[in-house]
Amino acid sequence: IELISAMPGEMERLLLQQRLDLAIGYFSQVQSAFDYRELFIETQHLYCAPGHPLFTHANPGDQDLQACDRVGHPYRFLRSDEPFQGERCSARSEQVEGTLAFILSGKHVGYLPSHFARTWEDKGLLRSVRRSDLSFDVAFHLARHRAQVAGDAQKAFEEDLLAAFA
Fold first, then answer.
1. Tens of pLDDT along 58-69?
2. pTM greater than 0.90 (yes/no)
3. Helix/strand/coil (H, E, C) string of the chain?
4. Structural domain boundaries of the chain?
């Protein structure tokens, strides 16, 4: 078993080239060559840290949000109805750890999975921006190439993985 961390587009490319057997992530789901099986839903909240103007703001308005510098995610499949797509974006990160570092600087706001941010929230180092319309859910899927014949080990691994998230 080899475990790699890559952007969804890269994982899809490796699956298409049949250099990867399975991939887990949130994908565009436009590849007709793949089978996608939903594993779980992850809730994302917009966060800020001490030192950021929104950290003590009880109910920020749209203008307050647009004044914020955000952390961009180059791999996200943006939808027109997705919350907060602010215009200012001087930081980019492909990984949650990088996004966290930018947010903890107190200079940026950014989206993090709620379960990942909880520890930092409990320590008072992060706070979700208090507006219910800023959160969204992301479905994570197990993807595999339809034409690739799975061996016994891959089948067993896939079955165990699906059972674990059932």
1. 889 889 999 999
2. no
3. CCCCCCCHHHHHHHHHCCCCCCEEECCCCCCCCEEEEEEEEEEEEEEECCCCHHHHCCCCCHHHHHCCEEEECCCCCCCCCCCCCCCEEEEECCCHHHHHHHHHCCCCEEEEEHHHHHHHHHCCCCEECCCHHHCEEEEEEEEEECCCCCCHHHHHHHHHHHHHHC
4. 8-41+139-165, 43-134
